[in-house]
Write a structure and sequence with these properties.
The structure holds 2 protein chains of 2 kinds. Chain A is an alpha/beta fold. Chain A is built from 19 helices and 13 strands. Classes of the chains: A alpha/beta, B mainly alpha.
Chain lengths: 441, 307
Amino acid sequence: MKKIFSIALVIIGIFLIMTALSACNKNDSNTLKIALDIEDRGRYDELFSYFTEKTGIEVAATYGEDISKLVGTADEPDIIKTSSVVVSSMKGSLVDLTSFIEADEQVSTDIYLDSIMEALTIDGKIYALPTSLNTSLLYYNKKLFDVKEQELREAFNLDASQSVYPKPDWDYDDFVKAGVILSEYTIKGDKRVYTQFGCETQLNWWGEWLVYVYQMGGTFYLPNSNNRVSALTSEQVIAATEFFRKKSLGDEHEKFAPDAIEASSAFSFLNGNVAMILGGHMGDWNSYNTIGLDWDIQLLPTPVGKPDAVGGEIAADAFGISARSKKKQVAFEFLKTWAGEEGAKQMYKYGKVGVLKNMEQIINALPEKEQKSIDIGVVFNAIERARTLPNEKDFSKICREKVMTEIYKLMYEGRGSEDDVRVVLNRIKENVDSYYQNLYG
Amino acid sequence: MKLSGFKEFKRNYKRQYKYFLLFGGVALVGFVLFYLYPIIRTLILSFTDTTIFDPEHHFVGWDNYLYALTKDDLFYKSIKLSLIFAICSGVMVLITSLALAMLLNQKVKGIGAFRTIFFLPFIIPAFAVGAVYKNLFNPLTGMINQILALLGVTNMPLWYISPSSALLTMIIISSFGFGVKMLVFLAALQGIPKHYYEVAQIEGASKVRQFFKITLPLISPMLFFNVILITIDGLRAFSLAFVMGNGQGWPSNSTLLFPIYMFMTAYNMPFRLGYAAAMAWLFFLIILALTGFNFLASKFYVQKDIT
């Protein structure tokens, strides 16, 4: 018995020591830690090797780990991924890069798009350098357009030499006209059963709806309200929301997108049964290519009579340095490479477009085999019409909990649905305004 | 010579303390590290404005608690949804698990295989189960509505798509979560001496009367155990609500159970960890009160001795 007891005690002792040791951080001064998305696995090994060759510093990347669960632990990376949207909520964990940038002659923030740098600068402090951007575009499936070529030619009065794909000067009427042509359905009883749609409906986030709001000339917050009072009952927001609803629930001459019920049934651009996405996300480019989708991009259509309407969204992934990192200077050296021309070239291979002002020239100078089959120039024209999201840390929470929850009820027919846009927008405004009232008084 | 009580205790203690250290100590270390420390840390956090990404935090007193209790409408909504879910799904699970346990307690050929088959789904992760049910309940393509169509139903339910029926859908799905509870009931049923039923049968008691006069009283301690288990499980339900509601109480906050709201508050922008900790403590008090109520109520239905 005594022997068994001793053996058990030794085993438990070893277990406890191993547990304690496993919690200890291997603090290798020659290695930088970075946490990346799961789809980035292996993509940037070449860039890491390039950096190691240049500096002798190894880069150890982990993939698919949630940064919010790594911060404050022994596994916290030296380089932290953030974005122009979330940086205001993450700044407490990030180093102010201003002094690093000022002390380094090779670095200038002037090389990045101004709107993105503004979003990454809070109270005069720069918390991250941008790496790849996302801006709202009109994505289209060329194959589905080709199938409907004849009908599109007739509807748009196009001769044989003209392309049937979306044009940069499309307005909403053109968008609807093409969308309806590209939708397919059969009649079952007195109902239309759709098998293909002209456009996606984005209900899980505010992206598409907010594009319509901005393009119609609306705003989310009242100007000069310090982003505390919403402007969601303006005529522009009402018009935008009505357009968003009609696109999914209108009659056969207007409906060309899935309602909430149809959207739950695998209708998506990625599945190849939806011809267009308004807004979309540039982070999906690689997925489109991986599944062999024949796609391209165009500028967003604009409201009728407003050809110069601005309103696409622009945001960027960015990287900062952990406030707890013991290798801040080395991390900054890496950040320079990552957010510089070398990093941008490497990322472009995987469909990510850098935030550098001269990115278009960099892409044009790439060898033919590294060029994309899409009209990349559209991205740079779209940027000029896009705007960043409101610089308000509760914005995404509000959109998620107060706005899209109510908009959703407008997007289908049946139990629990709503059909009066004004009533719904009034309720959203009340909820949003009382949220700020309760939070800040 | 007989030792006095204290001396005997002292002698036994000296002889056995090392076994106490061996078996109890390890568990105690685990409890302190993985339960007590997080509990105390959460309590401290709940009085601060800590966010996940901000190492600097300030003591805010009772502000977080007051905000939850007086200003956060989603706090109340999520508590209400969790209570509805816990009570409704709890009742359903109790009924289904007891009914199945009684079926599996029959002397039928191959009963072992049936028991295995009924328990097998519970080794599948809840996330995977949720995804499967989501397909089954899809209003357009799901099997459930297709069966209803074959039965001649014309006005199809929208299930998890509509805010009016999403929680109900979750309750229906969770009523199949009988796994462990069914086993507990089965063990209790197998412990009932068969001759009780034989005597009752001779005296002409119907099956229903046998159930209420013999079965239910004799399994009441296990019923109480299952009620506690089911109440706590229902209030802490996370995985199914996470899958069904896309991790955000979708659609229109109708599946925003409290654990989901707490998770969203801590791990989504603006990452208010301190506030989420306060909510966790308030919720803990609610669970404690409900468990206390269950204990009090048990006096009325748990039979300690029926012989």
